[in-house]
Specification:
Elements lengths: L2 H27 L3 E2 L10 H14 L6 H27 L12 E2 L3 E2 H27 L5 H26 L8 H4 L1 E2 L1
Helix pairs in contact: 1-2, 1-4, 1-5, 2-3, 3-4
């Protein structure tokens, strides 16, 4: 598997995570919610990192659904906790809020989401990993490099632009949770 294939898989997982986030929040808010990523593009890269981490750390457990469930639950919950703490240090806020959900910790993590992360881990190893690999494999050889590099450049530019706006305080939208949840 080439590095370009891996990069394309990373961004496919990030895009699917973006769709998942938007769908869940649209359902919960009973209104369309979009832009759940850090930047302006349709990516939640925490899902790309989660998929990569799952492949590295959880692959030995993929044939034991019980252990895989609990390990997925723990890994994803830990990632949420670390990501929220990094965002708080960088921006003074994080872009989700579980404070209304039972059994939450500072609105950053909650039992409901942790339970869902366990099921997502099983779904990842049973179906999603193969689907994403196959989809990325459909990119013609030679074009996969162009696609991968274009995605990296797009995300890097978007990330730098967004960081610049965040640190300058020139964002048109509020950087709090309310500002990040574009609800229509």
């Amino acid at each position: 598997m080439s590095i370009y294939h891996q990069i394309n898989c990373f961004f496919l997982f990030s895009f699917l995570g973006y769709l998942l986030e938007c769908s869940v929040l649209s359902f919960e808010n009973r209104r369309i919610v979009y832009n759940r990523g850090f930047g302006h593009g349709p990516f939640c890269i925490i899902y790309g990192f989660g998929a990569t981490g799952a492949m590295i750390l959880l692959k030995p457990l993929m044939n034991d659904p019980i252990l895989l469930y609990f390990a997925s639950m723990a890994m994803a919950t830990f990632m949420e906790l670390v990501t929220a703490n990094m965002m708080i240090r960088l921006f003074g806020s994080f872009w989700w809020d579980y404070s209304r959900k039972p059994f939450n910790y500072k609105g950053i993590i909650c039992l409901e989401s942790s339970i869902a992360w366990g099921f997502l881990g099983i779904f990842y190893f049973r179906y999603l990993r193969g689907f994403v690999n196959q989809t990325a494999g459909m990119i013609p050889e030679g074009l996969d490099r162009l696609v991968a590099m274009s995605l990296v450049i797009f995300y890097a530019v978007d990330f730098i632009y967004t960081m610049r706006l965040q640190f300058k305080g020139e964002c048109e939208e509020d950087t709090s949770l309310v500002g990040r949840l574009k609800v229509y």
